[in-house]
Structures are given as structure tokens and as C-alpha cells.
Amino acid sequence: MKRLLASCATFAVIVATAPPSRAQVALDQAARGDAVRGQAAHDDRAQGHATPRDGTGIDVLVQGDSLLPSSAADPTAATTVLQGEDLRVPGQSTAEALSRAPGVQIARSGAMGELATASLRGATTAETPVYLGGVRLNDDVTGTADLATLPLFSLRRVEVWRGASPPWVDRPGLAGAILLEPEIPRGNRFGVAAGAGSFGQRFAWAGGSVGNARAGAAFSVRGDKADNDYDYLDDGGTRFDQADDVTRERSNADLRSGDAWALGRYAVGARSTVRFALNGFLREQGVTGLSVIPARNARAVSRRELAILSTSSQCGPQRAPDDCVVEVHVHALRTAYELSDPLRELGFGAATQITRGKRFGQDARLALRLLDALRVETGAGVSSEGMNVVPIGLTATRARRASLRAHAEAIVQPWAPLELRAAGILTNDSTEGPGQAATDVLGPMGRVAARIAATPWLAFTAGAARYVRVPTLGEAYGASAVLRGNPDLLPETGVSFELGARADGGAAGDPVRASGAVTGFVRLADDLIAYRRTSIGGVRPFNVGTARVLGGEVEGALDVLRHVRAELALTLLDPRDTDSELTSDLLPYVARLVIAPGLEIYADDPITGAPIDRASLAARLVARGERVADPAGLIVLPAQTWLDVEATVALADDRIAIRTRLANVLGDDATDTVGLPLPGRSFHVAAEAWWN
């Protein structure tokens, strides 16, 4: 890590001291409330759209003062943006926040800090890339991203891209992507926060920033602890025999974690900006095993070290900041997972297993306005990643992959209401593992889309895309004595088609405002990767033919008299294994119905003369239909319903905030994945204070 930080610092010095040229870095749009991708904002303003900015590099498009903010990076894509109070609910995990977005389904293995993953539109978690500050977090073993390692306190905004993926990401997902953006330096301020909750949860946080229009720096650090000792029902593995059911207290589920961030920006001249971000994460916890076969002594340690360095340059005449923009990004990621199972309660075949992953990447992008009605974006990147699995006493697994990538996108706007997009992506992955020479896989991908504004408040979208996912290093070469590899795996491929409509009515200050979006889609996938048991008791991945997912998504919001806000997210899916010869052809672990309504009653300055700036009371519900847990459809996970009640009070010009949450009010005794109990009713409270 020391060599990594030294390399990043050297690169920053070289960029910052380079002589001015036509490729100098752009105006510091973060300090002015603008974003790096100003070309999208320019078009939005030309159409009368308001585009708030906060400098994270992702734009939020608010059409007609929309109650449903979406990404301005691509108005033709179906996107959902979570920000502000959506990310500040006490005791809420990143996975729980995402569960309220249409198209998203989450899987949890317990309470705070335990494995939590997200998937989009019936895809698997390995087919759903998750990015933090533009860096993909999906691991090299199973391909999943553990959302439990991403506390919400560090995030400024979350974007859910459904169906489409931004063309500049290194691995577009078969059904979309999730983009997480960290907080950024914003003036001079300092803040602290603390909170506590049921099952021994508590946290403390401190952070601050200093800066002006030229430069800024920010830091934050947080510590969390939890016992996670909630009660659960142990059915002894006999689901239909209640005679042996016993209520037990969960043990060996405690955790301690720490997370730290440092971010900065520096403007070199009038057209130059350098930004950096450093993140370190450490978590130590018990590993409980299954509810039927608990593990009493297993422990695990997770680590993450992340460094990001980026520059942006306005390379054309200063007629408009988006006429010519060059961006350069460098990142390095190192992860480690150390599992200690002295009594071999988990069945991994070793008493100690250490999994290490590393990734280094760099890319350059050029955004150029050739004509008033034509913009192009092009870029290329290179990355390398490696995996090292060391089961003590067994054969270690080492594998690595080098990737080359190029992309180009054309955005045409022949007249103001119409926008056309065409993007092409070409990747080449060279993978090398134990006992195998390097193999190359070429992955052509692309997308075409259109958006037409029929009226100032109604727009229609359409799109088609093709994506490719190469097997992870763990899928190809194995990760333990239980998870065997298959170097003959073929890449997964998928095509998708979608139609959408969006309406926004009312402006800020109107007594009634409403926004809504409807999207229908179909996704066809080939050579899906699934797992089956081997003769020696482990599991091995294989390609399983084709699948088809039909679906529809509804998203809506209504604000009445600036005191009542109602929201709705609805997802309908029909996920089918089209090669299945079994009685059931439903894809496992995919719910066919998810509905997430919410109702909030709020008031700004509710009491004249009192120091209360805002008070709100909200109820939010997430209901998920039943899911099958095996290809034959014999094991069915029951439907689940979570109802939360939240209250917030902001005081002293929004410098003090007190938030409370009663989670799982109905006390749903739910299990997720297979046999892993989730917590019941719980209470959480948090308070924060800021000084400018």
C-alpha cells in the first residue's frame, strides 16, 4: 500500500506541474456546483431542464422539477438516483436503501455488517457490477460485491442504471449497473455523529472539509460495532415439523469495523483540475454458519484499500466548457478476506483460508462536440487483476487477468425534443491460471437508444443492447476445496430491449406536483453460469444454456401542499430458464413481484419562532414475493414484508439533525438465501452536528 500511495502521489505531482497545453484540465466544476460531464448538462439546459450539480462526476437531471431525479449522463436510460435523506436513515444498510429502487433485489445473510448483495432485473449478483467512485468492487472469486462493506455515511449519491450501463465503465452489466459516489470537499465545515440501535449496534463518525474555489480537501472516519444477537427460529432442518422448533439467540455474529476516507481537488490554472480519493476499510467479525448448523468459533477479517486519481481538461476554445473535455483516471484496489475456522465447522476443507485480490487500471476519455447537434465520446483503458487463494494445508490457487478496452459513443440531437445515441464497446481479456497458458476472449458490446420529448412534461425512450461477462477468476480456477473451478467456461452474453415513458407535472412551489416513469423490457441470456455438485462433494460451475426475463417497472412520486409526499416503486418479473426440462423453469432466487411504497408527512419551519427547520414522519414498506431456491422449484422461500417508520428533526439552520427508525415494525421472521435468519423488529437513533 505504501508503494501504491507513493505512485499515486508521484502521478499527481507530474500532472499538477505539467505545462499548460490544449489538453489542460477543465475549470473546477465541483467548486462551482458543476460536474465533469458538462456536455450532458449543456443539452439539458438548452431544453429547459434544471441540472443540480455537486461535483461527484455524475449528473442529476431534474426534468420540469421532477420528483424522481435521474442521471443526466444518459437521459435515454432508465435510472434512479438516491441521495440526501435517502442515505441518512439510521441503522439502514446500503442494500436496504437500494431495495426501494425499482428493478433491484437484495440478498442478505444476517444483520449489520454481514454479506449483502444486489441484483438487477433478474440477473445474478455476479452479473450486476457495483462501482465506487468509478472503481468496480465485484470480487474475483464469485463476482459479487458485498454492499455491507459500503457504509452509507461515505456516500453522496447512488445511481441505479437498469438495462443500460454507462459506456465508460470497465464491465457493463448484463442487466445494468450500480454507481456509488463518495462525498466530496464542500467548503469549510466539520461534523460529528453518533448512533445506537438494537442488538448492540453503535457507531461514531467524524468528518470535515476545507477549501475554496481553487482547492479543497475532505476526510471522514467511522467506527461500527454490533453484537447481532437477535433471536431466530431454529426448525432443526425439518421445516414441516414444528414439534422440534426452538427459539435461539444468535451467537458468534458480532462485528467491529472501521472506514476512513480522504478526498481532495486542486485547480491548476483556470482550465485544470486534479482530484484524488483514498479509502481504507477493515472489518473483523464472527461467521455464524447456517441456522441449522451454526459455527461457534469461525472468525473472518475483511480489508479494502482503494486509491483513485483523476484529471479533467478543457482542451478546446472556451466558448463552452463541454466543447472538448479530456479525462484521465487511474485507480488501484487491494482486498483481502481471511477466514479462520479452527474446528472446520463451515466445510471449506481448511482451518484457515486467505483470499487476496488486487486490481490496477487506467483509462483516458475524450468528449468532443463536433456540431451543435453532434457530440462524441471515446476512450480506451487497460487494467490488470489477480486472485490468490491460500487454503492452509491445501493447494493454493493463483490466477490473473489483463484487460484492454475501447469504447465510442455518438450523441445526435437533430432537433431539441429528439436525442439519439449509439455506443460500441470492444474488450479483450487475457486470463492465465494454474496449469493453463493465457487465453484471450474478445467481447463486442454495444447499445442504441432514443429519447423523444413529446411535450415539455412527457418523454418516451427506447433502447437495445448487447453485453458480455467473462467468468471470474474464482469461477474459472476455483476458490476453495468446496468451490471448484472450470477453465472451459464460456463467457455469458445477453441482449436486452426496452421501452419507457416518463412524465413530470408541476414546478417547485406548486401545491401539487407529480412524476412517474414506466418501463417494459425483455432480456435474453446465453451460456449462463450455474453451479452443480461434483462427485467429491464440492460444487463446480458450468454453462447452462439460455434464459429469458420479461419485466416491467413503475416508479412514481406525488407531493401535495409541500407537506405530504407519496412514493412507489414496483417491479414485475417473469424469469425463465428456457432450456429447463424440469417441472419448474423459474430462475432461482428471483422474486416475481417487489413493491416498495412510501408515505412522508413533513413541514419546513413548522413552528414560528422555534429553531426547528424541518420535521418529518415517514413510513416505508418493501414487500417481496416468494422465490424458488432450486432449479426444480421444490424449495420455496416465503414472501417477505418489511415496514419501517422513520422520524427526522433538523435544528439550528440544519446544523443539527436527529433521526430515528423503527425497522421491521411487523416483526417478519424472515430468512434469506437458505436458512440464514434476518433480524426482527429493531430500533435505531442517530444524531449529527455540523460547524461551518
Task: Explain the layout of strands and helices.
Layout: H1 2-17, H2 38-46, E1 60-61, E2 70-71, E3 78-83, H3 94-98, E4 104-108, E5 116-120, E6 130-132, E7 135-136, E8 155-162, E9 176-182, E10 189-197, E11 201-211, E12 215-226, E13 231-234, E14 246-249, E15 255-267, E16 272-286, E17 299-314, E18 324-340, E19 352-371, E20 374-391, E21 397-415, E22 418-433, E23 436-455, E24 458-469, H4 473-477, E25 492-505, E26 512-526, E27 529-533, E28 539-543, E29 546-560, E30 564-577, E31 593-604, E32 612-624, E33 627-628, E34 636-637, E35 640-651, E36 656-663, E37 671-672, E38 676-677, E39 682-691
Parallel strand pairs: 6-9
Antiparallel strand pairs: 1-2, 3-8, 4-5, 6-7, 8-9, 10-11, 10-39, 11-12, 12-15, 13-14, 15-16, 16-17, 17-18, 18-19, 19-20, 20-21, 21-22, 22-23, 23-24, 24-25, 25-26, 26-29, 27-28, 29-30, 30-31, 31-32, 32-35, 33-34, 35-36, 36-39, 37-38
Tell me the number of strands. 39
Strand content: over 45%
Corresponding CATH architecture: Beta Barrel
Give start-end ranges of low-pLDDT stretches: 1-64
Question: What is the rounded distance between the termini?
Answer: 34 Å
Output the radius of gyration.
25 Å
